[in-house]
Amino acid sequence: MGALDAVAARVAGGATVEFRPSGSSMVPLIRSRQPVRVAPVDPARLEPGDIVLARVAGTVYLHLVSAVDPARRRVQISNNRGRVNGWTGHDRVFGICVAVDGTPRPGATDKTTAVP
């Protein structure tokens, strides 16, 4: 189990979690080890450009929603460099990034299911 799996489990359980993801696939939106805050999300409210914590093909990513398919209740997940990870069901989208380095992500809080 990787570090993001543990975070995903906490967010799926209803917690808002702050952590420092590593990697460069989301630069410049998120830099490696930059603090982020992720809250539980209502996947039906997601839009392209939202940053979510989701499982795609067995791996948990903190990546962008690149497309939505409401009829099939799924979203497409991609990094910020053009690589598409794939489609995943709403049941595998655990949370939405509501802040990066303390700066709120516009509109993200409106999509959470977390109780303030």
Write the SSE topology.
Layout: H1 3-12, E1 17-19, E2 36-40, E3 51-56, E4 59-69, E5 74-78, E6 84-89, E7 93-100, E8 103-104
Antiparallel strand pairs: 1-2, 2-7, 3-4, 3-7, 4-5, 5-6, 7-8
Which structural traits does this protein have?
116 residues, mainly beta, eight-stranded antiparallel beta sheet, 1 helix, 40% strand, globular
Describe the structure.
The structure is a single chain. With 116 residues, the chain is mostly beta strands. Helices cover 9% and strands 40% of the residues. It has 1 helix and 8 strands; from the N terminus they run αββββββββ. Strands 1, 2, 3, 4, 5, 6, 7 and 8 form an 8-stranded antiparallel sheet that branches. The protein is globular, with a radius of gyration of 13 Å.
Q: What's the total helix number?
A: 1
The run of helices and strands is HEEEEEEEE
Average pLDDT for all residues? 95
Low-confidence stretches: none
What is the global morphology? globular
Main sheet summary: 8 strands, antiparallel
Got a strand count? 8
Give a brief rundown of this model.
It is built from one helix and eight strands. The protein has one helix at residues 3-12, and strands at residues 17-19, 36-40, 51-56, 59-69, 74-78, 84-89, 93-100, 103-104. Strands 1, 2, 3, 4, 5, 6, 7 and 8 form an eight-stranded antiparallel beta sheet that branches.
